[in-house]
């Protein structure tokens, strides 16, 4: 395989790992909150069942619904902070980039879709609190604005993983490199994640892997407008990585073999 093909492959695998871990931590947030409030949760790979949640007061249901998105928000902030602290453009740093933006996308994406999908976490909160539609719309617009801004900020960090000046020397080459490191990995990763999400529990869970990645179109388009990108000195993103591939296999086994059947709390 050529270097650019390995860049696509490695970034796609990191995207899948980051996405699955984001899902796991998100659902674990729900499960832990549910266990704390006596809902007797059963944690699955991409959802949580509750054996005794109906008798809980509305405010406790609100806390349980908010727990997942808040964990995702914390993930996005912490991963982004660690990303900024690391200077070398390693595979781990690329993972942190994906892990941060996916955490933020999970939280702010729920804010965006809250008025539309009542079965979603924020949609449930709105129902439980009888939130006026006008406030739902205001929150959705604010969430969209913050998420789009965060996506635009991915442009330079993503391009800085290039270790060849020719790959980011002009507008066309920068856009192509962004395609290789962002868009192709998103499309490949979303396809695989969708398969791993099966069987279908909710339509939203099948739409989400693709729809959540549409924000990556913005840094891809923006790549042609930025200049003076600092090239990386690390070439591992364009090389095969046994550790990376084994990590993906282990995570898939845990995701489908352990979590999908369910773990009772």
Walk me through this protein's architecture.
The chain is mainly alpha-helical and 265 residues long. It has one domain (3-257). Helix content is 68%, strand content 3%. It contains ten helices and three strands. The protein has a three-stranded antiparallel sheet, covered by helices on one side. Helix 2 runs antiparallel to helix 3. The radius of gyration is 19 Å and the shape is globular. It starts with a helix and ends with a strand. The mean pLDDT is 94.
Q: What is the helix fraction of residues, given as a range?
A: 55-70%
Tally of distinct domains = 1
Shape category: globular
The structural class is mainly alpha
Q: What gyration radius follows from the Cα positions, in whole Å?
A: 19 Å
Produce a short descriptive summary.
The chain is mainly alpha-helical and 265 residues long. 68% of the residues lie in helices and 3% in strands.
What's the SSE blueprint?
Layout lengths: L2 H34 L4 E3 L4 E3 L7 H28 L5 H23 L7 H9 L3 H20 L2 H5 L11 H27 L5 H9 L5 H6 L19 H18 L3 E2 L1
Antiparallel strand pairs: 1-2, 1-3
Helix pairs in contact: 1-2, 1-3, 1-7, 1-10, 2-3, 2-4, 3-5, 7-8
Labels describing this entry:
globular, 265 residues, mainly alpha
């Amino acid at each position: 395989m050529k270097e650019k093909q390995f860049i696509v492959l490695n970034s796609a695998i990191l995207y899948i790992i980051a996405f699955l871990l984001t899902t796991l931590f998100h659902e674990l947030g729900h499960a832990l909150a549910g266990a704390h409030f006596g809902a007797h949760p059963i944690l699955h790979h991409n959802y949580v069942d509750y054996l005794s949640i109906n008798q809980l007061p509305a405010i406790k249901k609100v806390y349980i619904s908010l727990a997942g998105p808040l964990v995702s928000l914390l993930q996005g902030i912490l991963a982004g902070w660690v990303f900024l602290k690391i200077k070398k453009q390693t595979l781990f740093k690329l993972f942190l980039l994906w892990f941060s933006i996916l955490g933020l996308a999970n939280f702010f994406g729920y804010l965006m879709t809250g008025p539309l999908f009542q079965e979603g976490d924020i949609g449930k909160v709105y129902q439980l609190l009888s939130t006026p539609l006008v406030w739902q719309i205001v929150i959705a617009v604010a969430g969209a604005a913050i998420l789009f801004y965060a996506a635009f900020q991915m442009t330079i960090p993503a391009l800085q993983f290039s270790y060849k000046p020719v790959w980011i020397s002009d507008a066309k080459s920068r856009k192509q490199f962004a395609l290789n490191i962002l868009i192709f990995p998103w499309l490949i990763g979303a396809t695989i994640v969708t398969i791993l999400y099966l069987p279908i529990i909710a339509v939203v869970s099948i739409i989400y892997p693709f729809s959540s990645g549409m924000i990556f179109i913005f840094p891809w388009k923006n790549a042609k407008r930025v200049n003076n990108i600092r090239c990386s000195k690390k070439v591992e993103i364009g090389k095969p990585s046994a550790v990376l591939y084994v990590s993906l296999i282990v995570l898939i086994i845990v995701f489908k073999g352990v979590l999908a059947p369910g773990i009772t709390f």
